[in-house]
Amino acid sequence: MSLGQQLAPHLPFLRRYGRALTGSQHQGDKYVRATLEAIVAAPDQFPRDVDPRLGLYRMFQGIWSSANMDGEEQTSQSDAEGTEAVARARLARMTPLSRQALLLTAMEGFTPEDAAYLIEVDTSEVETLVGEALAEIEKQTRARVLIIEDEPIIAMDIETIVRDLGHEVTGVAVTRDEAVALAMEDRPGLVLADIQLADDSSGIDAVKDILAEFEVPVIFITAFPERLLTGERPEPTFLITKPFQRSTVKAAISQALFFDEATIPAAVA
Predict the structure, then answer these.
(1) Superfamily the domain 142-263 falls into
(2) What is the model's pTM?
(3) CATH architecture observed for domain 3-138
(4) Cα dist. 190→146, 186, 196, 263 in Å?
(5) For residue range 125-135, what is the model confidence (pLDDT) as tens digits?
(6) The Cα angle at residue 23 between residues 18 and 27, in degrees rounded to 5
(7) What is the pLDDT of residues 183-204, one digit of tens each?
(8) Is the dihedral angle over the CA atoms 74, 80, 82, 85 positive or is it negative?
(9) For the chain, what are the domain ranges?
(10) How many angstroms separate the CA atoms of 123 and 179, rounded?
(11) With contact defined as beta carbons under 8 Å apart, do 177 and 198 qualify?
C-alpha cells in the first residue's frame, strides 16, 4: 500500500484538528494542504518508524510550529482584525502548546505518549498542559448555549456537560423549525447541533437559518465526520464525532468559544 493510501483515511480528522486549532476552515485546511505538499515534495522525510496517522500529525505539527515560530501571517487583514485578533488576545494568557495538548488528547484521541511525541515535550508534561488549557479557557469563557439534538439521552448528556462548564442552556430543540424558533426567541452565544434530526430535517439547515439572522459559533455533532470534512466546500470548523467522550465535548466548546469575540472578558478585550 502506498503512503498516500495509508494517509487518506486520516485526512478528514487532520482537517478537524487543523480547523479546531486555528478556529477557521480556511486556515485549518491551508495547513493541511501545506502538510501534504511537504510530504509529496520530500517523502523520505516522512516518519516511517511510527504509525502513519501519528507521522501525518507530526508533519502537520512541524508545519504549524514553523509558521508560528517565524511569525508568518496565515490570515488576510480582515481575519487578523477579527478571529485571529481574538485568538492572539487570549494567547497572551495561555500558551499555544497547552491548546494543542488538549485538542490532541481530548478531541483527536491520542494517548499522552503520542501527544508528547507530536508536540515534542516529555510525556509527564502533557497532563499538566491539558490541565492548564482547560482551567484557563473555562475561566475565560461563559456562554448561553442552544442544543439541537433529537436523541433525549444524548441531549441530556450534552446539557449536563454544558452546565458543568458553567454555561447556560437556552433550550433543547429536536427539529429544524423548533431550533430556529428557540434561537430567535432567546439568542444563544453558541450552538451545538446534531446533523440528523427527529423529523428527518437537518441540523445543518437549521444552523443555516440561524446564521442568516445573526452570527454565532457552531459545533456540529455527527456519526459520520468524514462526510463533512472533505475540504471541498464550506464545512464545519468545529465537529464532534458520535459516540463522543465528555472530554471531547468540553474541548470543542472551549475551543469554539476561544475564537468567539463575544465571549472575551473585559480584561482581555
Answers:
(1) Response regulator (3.40.50.2300)
(2) 0.82
(3) Up-down Bundle (1.20)
(4) 6, 12, 19, 10
(5) 999 999 988 78
(6) 55
(7) 999 999 999 999 888 788 888 8
(8) positive
(9) 3-138, 142-263
(10) 43
(11) no
